[in-house]
Records
---
Amino acid sequence: SDVIIRSTGLWTPPHSISNAQLVESYNAYAARWNAEHAGEIERGEREAKQPSSVEFIEKASGIRSRYAIDPDGILDTSRLRPKVEPRPDDALCLMAEAGVVAVKDALNRVGLDGGDVDGVICSATSMQRTYPCVAIEIQDAIGATGFGFDMSVACSSATFALQQAVNAIRCGQANRIVVVTPEITTPQLNYTDRDSHFIFGDVAVAVILERADWGNPGWKILSTRLKTQYSNNIRSNQGFLNRCEEPARDEDEMLFVQNGRRVFKEVCPMVAEMILQHMGDCGLTPDDMKRLWLHQANSNMNRVIAQKVFGREYADAEAPTILDEFANTAGAGSVVCFHRHNDDFETGEKGLICSFGAGYSVGSIFVERVAA
Ligand code: CO8
């Protein structure tokens, strides 16, 4: 059978952090660090830390705030990371808890419950543990049948998982699959790094996919395409070998690092080219696109890509951003954007969900609104 997206759902942490709060905290940390290293700075042995700025962040990225699991721990200059309480093994883990809320939101919107699902894919940049899979914990918590597994492709985690779900339904291995992307990004951020302290936020998003021949309304998946090309310009060295490595790594190396300028320059043309190629191969043209739900890393980047794809100036509604509220939510971004900006579509109207990021990776999914 063909496949439709039946519904989507969202979880956000209850609190968010504004740029002003984040910059105030970083600047207090930087001033203290400079005072502590005043001698070395004076002797030219170290560089003083420059202050961060709200104006820079908004202009360079379009980000104004981000949801976070623990703003207090992040803003506390003696800590600069969220505080997470370990839970007993018989309690839902943090990622599963966030994921379950998003999944139930998606199910409730169309009057379904967990028992109607026969596959769960949990796909996110970082996984809370190695095993058992978070997806299997979510499968159990919602009462789904079938199978569950985890996967991870950084910023393309959701789109790559959507293709796996589409394939599984097309092959008859499942009838209704939930793809859930709980992106708990803030523990991976280096809040002592001015270049990246503002970039990410926490969120979870879920997508219910099912057989199109059941005849429900939703979004028909017209075509999916994935592409990867190796790059070290976005990297985290965190992994299961860390505790055995000798000499031990600096903790900073286990956090998110990127060469943002290079990423911008290399990824924009790669994405625009891939979208246009995929579009042409599907017999579609830019004029067929009512909306592009692009990956949410940077508003300037999205402007460059959308202009290349449309081949003209375009209105904000044709490629909306959610960066102001959510910041970059890694693999979840393009799907959160789709979730927030799709209720004005008429039957037959088409759009593109497209992720891009670390790897590099690009995931492109054309959808069409279908009625019952
Ligand atoms: N405040 C004030 N000034 C600053 C700040 C700051 N906070 N940060 C940097 N500056 C300074 C720089 O030091 C630089 O100064 P100088 O010119 O003296 O060297 C100047 O501002 C300009 O800096 P940049 O050239 O770096 O500024 P850009 O305009 O390039 O903007 C961005 C920086 C926003 C990082 C931009 O390059 C960008 O967004 N690039 C694209 C990045 C991207 O898309 N990355 C994808 C990442 S997401 C992803 O793949 C997911 C991975 C999984 C994540 C997991 C969760 C943690």
Note: The two ends are 16 Å apart (CA to CA).
---
Amino acid sequence: MSVNYDTYLSETAKQIQPSGIRKFFDLASSMKGVISLGVGEPDFITPWSVRETTIASLEGGYTSYTANAGLLELRTEIAAYLKNNFRISYDPNDQIIVTVGASQALDLAFRALLNQGDEVLIVEPAFVSYSSLVSLAGGNPIPLSTNAENGFKVTAEQIEAAITDKTKAILLCSPNNPTGTYLNRDELSEISKVVKKHDLIVVSDEIYAELTYDEEYTSITSLEGMYDRTILINGFSKGFAMTGWRLGFVAAPKELTHVMLKIHQFTTMCAPHMLQHGAIDALQNRETIVEHMKNSYRRRRNYIVQSLNNIGLECHTPGGAFYVFPSIKRTGLTSEQFAEQLLLQEKVAVVPGNVFGESGEGYVRCSYATSLEQLQEAMKRIRRFIESLG
Ligand code: PMP
């Protein structure tokens, strides 16, 4: 007798859509000679000192569990990092949890906050995981659309208009994936007024905080009255080129950390011990590690923005991360058609904007975390593709 699995599966889990990015990766990886502007990760290998420290940790036999919240030594380094670079003070003893990537930190935040039907405002275009994580935690993701005309910046008025008696939190991600948009202190300050007026919590995804190119980074947590109502999420993946290490952290008022730690303790136990030693090294050598990569990304950003605009694909200059989000509206193609035809015709992989929410339609995401030579070749191919459309 065959098993009808459908009747066993959770309705919530069934409704989750797989990431739209995957489809293009699978197609691209089956082809030869593809230049990928599709991936959302640094093209750098994790710096040697971090790897060396981790090897020494393994050699030293550090293979046991750590405290659930992570090694106190790492949490102390994280606290110093947040204080020195973002002017926010957290107690390493009860306000910081080391997680398995920023991904797990996001999951903890939503699970700790949400009851069935609670609404979370999500500024779109947005990182693909947010709405699924909110749904899995029983919440309702409510999109707030932005577009190129407003630099993909959400406004305080827009937030206020979307608030209902079910709204519990707003997810902010600055610099943003996929648009690269950075919200500066004044913009965050306007947003924070609405957040305070309506008594919301901010889940602040700051995974690209190290990669801001024109202005000094401001965390919304550091603004007046926001510390008590913000869950700060960050990690090592982007700024430190450590995606495969799966290390991140969450910092929050201790009443919230306490609840997230309960969930973390039962679902994950702790992040890997020897890798936490590597993360300590990363933070201790932060300046040298981050500066060099950041300068390289900045050069590439300037190059790709100028090239795309020259080709006729209008593209705003993003303040951070390593993505540009040019408009492809003039081609008359949908973003899926554009990405598919570009891949098949010219072997350049980009991500169609609609996978980041409805307001992403009409755009594609190009990651510039690839060598300048590859970028130059990709721009040649994209130019040829646009010309072929007539
Ligand atoms: N937030 C954003 C905005 C991201 O782009 C990513 C990775 N693409 C993550 C979180 C997840 O990061 P991590 O590798 O630390 O889980």
Note: The chain has a mean pLDDT of 96.
